Amino acid sequence: MVSFSKVVCFLAASLNLKYSLALPLEHNSELPHAIKSRQQQYFAITGVTDGGVQPRLEIRTLASTKPEMWNLFLLAMERFKAMDQTTRESYYQIAGIHGAPYSAWDRVSGSGNWGYCPHGSNIFGPWHKPYIVLFEQVLQQKAKEIANALPAGTNKDKYVAAANELRLPYWDWAIDPAGGTVMPASMSTKTISVTYPNGTTATIQNPLYTYNFNPLRAADFPDPNNNMPPFDEWKTTLRQPSSSTASAVSNDAALEKELKGNLNYNRAQLYKLFTQTQKYQTFSNKASGGSIGNLESLHDNIHSAFGSGHMGWPPAAAFDPAFWLHHCNVDRMLALWQALYPSTYVESASQKGPTYTIKKGSSQNANSNLTPFHRDTAGSFFTSANSRGITNFGYTYPELVGATNDTLKAKINALYGSTVQGIITKRADGSSTAPRDYVAKVSMPWIGLEGTFSVGLFLGDFNHDPKAWAKDPNFLGAQTSMSNPYTPDNDVVITNSVVLTQALAKKHQSGELESLDEETVVAYLAKNLHWEVQRQGVIVPKTDVPDFKVVVQSIEIKPAESASDFPVWVGGWSTHSAVTDSAN
Ligand SMILES: *[C@@H]1O[C@H](CO)[C@@H](O)[C@H](O)[C@H]1NC(C)=O
Ligand SMILES: *[C@@H]1O[C@H](CO)[C@@H](O)[C@H](O)[C@H]1NC(C)=O
Fold it and tell me: Residue of the nearest CA to atom 11 in ligand 2?
């Protein structure tokens, strides 16, 4: 198959024709030698091959502990983004792999108004790995160019060493920012201070804040039904844009409000993903029928915080520099999860939506090609199976360095665990019941509302304006389904477990919830648990959302017995239908 795809790709390139996958294999032997020798080499994604295996660092750690590396990172990002948009390795072309423009990258042809990125797919996680590695590889190359251009001397040696060890940082949007903002200032200020290798300090346009299209090619962002924000008019990437006109500007305070308002929700979701055992198939994506929660849905929530900005829409998301730091974190979550549960991985699944190269309804498995990512210049592709590890790509994550399962679990507990692990009721005789975990299982369609939408949950009265949700004291969090409005209809229903336990404990502490016995809790939830659906800041009647459902359940939870132990669900679920029968 390797030589087949290679042949097909270079034929398509040389003759400038769209190829058909039905091209008979025999064409292989009939290729004129002259055409073959003109063939350009494919881009080999190897990961960074300098400096051995290095940890990708959290962006705030990189900025505060590695000054040379941090400055090189900023300067390399600046240089990367300044590349000619027609160059294959440019920021523009690499960002364009994900969604728009819908054209071939590295001569891997396809069709349709969608990018190569598989969403709602068993290969969602594995596909993004070589994608992030590709970005990191070009970025580190830029850092090396900067360091290598320095005059010989100790400064040069220091910077070359820093460039060799540079890996893409990740943005951990689930940690407690300890009084700081969820979005690090280094990603959200318009300008940033940089120290050049010669010691001069300057203030530059922050390369992590926007991408300025250079130039903007309107035709690269087609929207025939006019149901996306005006990406064909915005000359720069925007976050929580102030309007849907060409003159819109970013509203960074609104973005921070969304991230902060959803922080506890997202952290609790992540902790459930790490601690409750499920198969890779249901853990990794939103279309495999799981109900605990899944990495893709959690990832969707972060995209959604950017509102109608580029990050909120799959066709445009990868142009915002935040995409890369966000997805580096998603890759880290996947890597940590794989280290905890190494025996489960991608299984075959029918694809519920199309990509540029994958037909809807086709089947993908661990050996399917992760297009358009080549592992060598001859044109063989990465697959989920051959990209399962991380150190072979030259990187690791801090939590995995020298880790055992116990040290890893201890780090996860410290970063994302909660002191409240379950709701405990006192019996009349003074003894306590086993702790219980309360969740709302929220089911929603992947698509059906023409693009990204979300469900907000509340415990108590709330402001019905979606723009006010995130700062409402009774807001629990919102679950998003991110989608391309042009994805053809499908029957995928996504279920996520929204954790209610910590919020209930807080309401009890404040005296609002009288007691924690089951009857009182259920009655309280029946009266106070509310939910609402919004799209682009506008309420959508729940009855307009197909397959939408909320079910409240509880289960016994066995608390962690040590700092390196996880709390786990035991026994069966009780359904509290009284809550959802009356509440809305
Ligand atoms: C230091 O390097 C920067 C970037 O190359 C340059 O703009 C600046 O003029 C240099 N400063 C000195 C004192 O050479
Ligand atoms: C790590 O610990 C978790 C939770 O106790 C357990 O389910 C998992 O199998 C362990 N993984 C390894 C690799 O030992």
Answer: 340
